[in-house]
Amino acid sequence: MPRSTPIAVLLLVLASLLGAGDAGASQTRGRSPLELAQAVERRAAAASFQDLERFGQDALSRNDREGLQRLYHVVWTFMNQGEFKTAQLWNDRLAAAARHQRDGRYIRIADLNRLALRYDGGDRAAAAEMREHAAMEPDWFARIHAIRLWAVALMDQDEIGQGLKALADAHALIPDEAPYARAARASLWEMTGIGLMQLNDIDGATAAFGHFEIDLANPDYPRPDFDAIYNLAYLSAQLGDIDRAKSLYEIHHRLTVRSGLPNLAVYDAALCAQTFEAANDPGGVLQCLAPLGENLGQASFLASQLLPSRAVARAQTGQIEAARRDLVQIRRRAAEESQREAASEIDHVEAEILFAEGRASEAFVKLRRHMQEDRVADARRFSDGIRQVTGDMQQQLTERRAQLETARSNTHLQGVLLAISVIFVLSALAAVLWMASQAKDLKVARRRAEEASRAKSEFLANMSHEIRTPLNGVVAMADALTRARLAPREREMVEVIRSSGVTLERLLSDILDSAKIEAGQIALERSVFDLGEAVRGVAALYRPSADQKGVALRLEVGPAAEGPVEGDLVRLRQVLSNLISNALKFTETGSVTVTASAVDAERMRFTVKDTGCGFDEEQKARIFGRFQQADGSITRRFGGTGLGLSISRDLVELMGGGLECRSRPGEGAEFWFELPLARVKASASAPAETARSDDFPFPARVLLADDHPANRKVIEIMLAETPAELVVVEDGRQALEAVRREPFDLVLMDMQMPVMDGLTATAAIRALERQDNRKRTPIIMLTANAMPEHVEAGRAAGADGHLSKPITFAGLIDGLSAVMGSAERSHAPAAA
User: Fold this and answer.
1) What Å distances lie between residue 191 and 2, 112, 181, 200, 653, CA to CA?
2) How many whole angstroms separate alpha carbon 476 and alpha carbon 557?
């Protein structure tokens, strides 16, 4: 039985954690138990527990990991002596220092120490938490500590083999060159020694303790402890080597007296009793235990070991009544789950008492049963301990036998097998050559496909930029002309130009979306929004078109569809817009009805129903294809690319739903889709629908950076209608210098410019603001790059908003409103 309580005895992490690597086994292989005890005595005599306390105080003044490791050493040295209050005090100091340094490793180490203290206090539920940490702990050093704790718990449950296996496997987790690798290995050797001791292997235990106590110990750390001497003395007594047990006990007694620790005196008395019991000297046993008192006093935590020894000694010396009092206590403790050791000695104690009373026959029956149970328990422990050693050997032996049987039964087929082998080798060689050729072809094809995909993406991005740049001039100028005082005929012509430009922009966006969906590059952006307001907002966009055609646009939003939900608002609007636009396009008279309702708590259903021309089943099979409509005459009559429904279906599927339809020629059509939209609780911080507001601080001075003359002219004309003062530059470097010279209320930054592009300029402006402690200037990326990755790049550089060309006056004002309003809120004083 080890000296300490189940965990504390075994866990001297002792912070010998500065070395790396492992000590050579040759240093301990020839060391006897007495030689090891003498070496430990010399080491322990060189320091005191007062030195250990001073060592801990010095560690508290450090602010590094070494200081934490030293505190860890102090905690476990005191815990191994049974000084639990002192250990708890130092562990609290370790936890506080680790939190102060934000060192996750030692925060977890302190938590594991608390588990060990709970376990030592009798809380066996802590073992389950130890097992979880041993399996899941991410930090290797903390995991080694957890594995040691769990291995001891396994040994306490007589699962010695499992405990030793866990310790052996743990060595592979230690990085050889890592700081504290030597200390981690030393701690595993200590636990291994405990396991071998429980298997009565004193030579193996001595070698393992030698690695821990001497070979891998850090000489710079004070080590006044001497646990290995207790363990080896105890095992020597169990094995009947009385002379060695007495020699080891004498060393232990000298060090105990020198230490001055009360708990070590308790362990020393227990070791004394064990030694005299092995020597069949009951009087000596009682003399060793007498200072502890009738109720054992501070030694009560060792009652399961001491009470049976005292009861037997009392019976053997004729103190029968006193022996029976001890037996009563043993039975009471045996009823507790944690006192299994005491329960195993009941028959032995009863046999000694009966024999002392002259009832030899009854005593013999009790003693025989005790010996049988003891033999069975020893056999089980031994079997469990060697299982891990013999398991692999047995498996290898079984495999070897199978190989020999196979070889013997197939000897006469060697010639055939040789021929088959040659054929197989040739076939395999041919297959390898063919696979190499195929792999080369696949590699070339993959590279070409990647190059084609990259070229396609670059082409789309460039074409988007090149088309949107002149389109910005057309749409923006047409938008500006619509606000001018024009004659009706000229206004009509301008409206044709504007609507044609808007249509061209939508076609371009559809083509880009279709290409990105096909390439799998569409990413959803989830946000919280009011579903009812979103549906009403989309419908409001198409009400003027419906009124102009004389078509009734009806909206039905069910009560369950109101309130905040989480989903991709932009893509939901896009799908609804496509369906409503499509319905209005094919409906000359009658109505278009938009419905939003709840299917259940997590799914919403959206329906767009019209009274238009409808379609048949054959046409239905084509309408969801790319660049497809019900038939060619529809394209000629109504226009469009045939991409809207295809994009809508793909987007709905990306969002976790499905788009369906039904129709009959001449009876209109109905399209519907369902989406998983998780409801969220309404809160003051939930984002509301963005609404245009003229109530925002309009920028007094605006800086525009754009290399294209037409784009600059567009912004000049638009802002001419506002009170803003516009300063124009042609590249990012000029923009940076302008911001450096004078303050601006807003910067409109093009993304692609010569000399310095807009992203670089934006990042440089943000760096300048941080360097000079300036107020943040709102920056809007105003560019022809409409791809999502370009928008994200602008955000990453520090932009506050993004406006894609072509730009209308309303779009510009909405963008300014959003950015300036956000800037105003961020600088508003906090409410008292």
Assistant:
1) 11, 16, 16, 14, 57
2) 35
- Dihedral over alpha carbons 113, 118, 124, 127 (to 10 degrees): -20
Backbone angles phi, psi at 553, to 5 degrees: -105, 110
Separation in Å, CA 620 to CA 49, 575, 644, 673 = 89, 18, 14, 16
Q: Cα 461 to chain center, whole Å? A: 37
Do β-strands 669-676 and 603-610 pair in parallel, antiparallel, or remain unpaired?
Answer: antiparallel
Phi, psi at residue 273, to the nearest 5°?
Answer: -60, -40
- Containing 790, the helix (H) or strand (E) segment is helix 788-797
Asked if 762 contacts 781 with a C-beta cutoff of 8 angstroms, the reply is yes
Token code pair at residue 136: 């899941």
Nearest C-alpha neighbor of 188 from the set 229, 218, 144, 226: 144
Q: pLDDT confidence of 789, banded at 50, 70, 90?
A: confident
**What's the rounded Cα separation, in Å, for the pair 156 and 244?**
26
pLDDT in tens, 346-375: 888 888 888 888 888 887 887 788 777 767
Q: How far apart are CA 816 and CA 797, in angstroms?
A: 19
First to last CA, the chain: 68
CA distance 75 to 96: 13
461: nearest Cα among 198, 60, 791, 94: 791
Strand partners, 593: 554, 609
Q: How many angstroms separate the CA atoms of 351 and 361, rounded?
A: 9
H or E, element range at 746: strand 746-749
The answer to whether 69 touches 17, Cβ cutoff 8 Å, is yes
Other Cβ atoms closer than 10 A to 474: 19
- Both tokens of 112, joined, read 């594991």
The more confidently predicted of residues 708 and 71 is 71
Token reading at 134 = 């041993």
Quote the CA–CA distance of 586 and 591 in Å, as a whole number. 11
pLDDT tens digits, 412-459:
777 777 778 788 888 888 888 888 888 888 888 778 877 776 666 666
Cα atoms in the Cβ-side hemisphere of radius 13 Å centred on 698: 13
Give pLDDT tens digits for 369-408.
877 776 766 666 566 555 555 554 555 566 667 777 777 7
Describe the chain by its helix, strand, coil percentages, rounded to 5: 65, 10, 25
Mean pLDDT of the chain: 80
Instruction: Give the tokens for residue 514.
Output: 């279709």
Sketch out the chain's domains with CATH numbers: 26-225 (1.25.40), 527-679 (3.30.565.10), 701-827 (3.40.50.2300)
HEC states along 636-680? HHHCCCCCHHHHHHHHHHHCCCEEEEEECCCCCEEEEEEEECEEC
How many Cβ atoms sit within 10 Å of the Cβ of residue 243? 10
> Is the separation of the CB atoms in 231 and 205 below 8 Å?
yes
- Burial bucket for residue 610 (CB in 10 Å: 0-12, 13-18, 19+): buried
CA distances from 429 to 120, 424, 432, 442 (A): 64, 8, 5, 19
Burial of 97 (0-12, 13-18, 19+ CB in 10 A): buried
Rounded Cα distance, 779 and 784, in Å? 16
Tokens of 290: 């007498």
SS (H, E, C) 147-215: HHHHHHHHHHCCCHHHHHHHHHHHHHHCCCCCCCHHHHHHHHHHHHHHHHHHCCCHHHHHHHHHHHHHH
The Cα–Cα gap between 22 and 476 comes to 76
Q: For tokens 């010639």, what's the residue?
A: 415
Residue 98: Cβ-neighbour burial (10 angstroms; 0-12, 13-18, 19+): buried
Q: Is the pLDDT of residue 471 over 60?
A: yes
3 state SS of 558 = coil
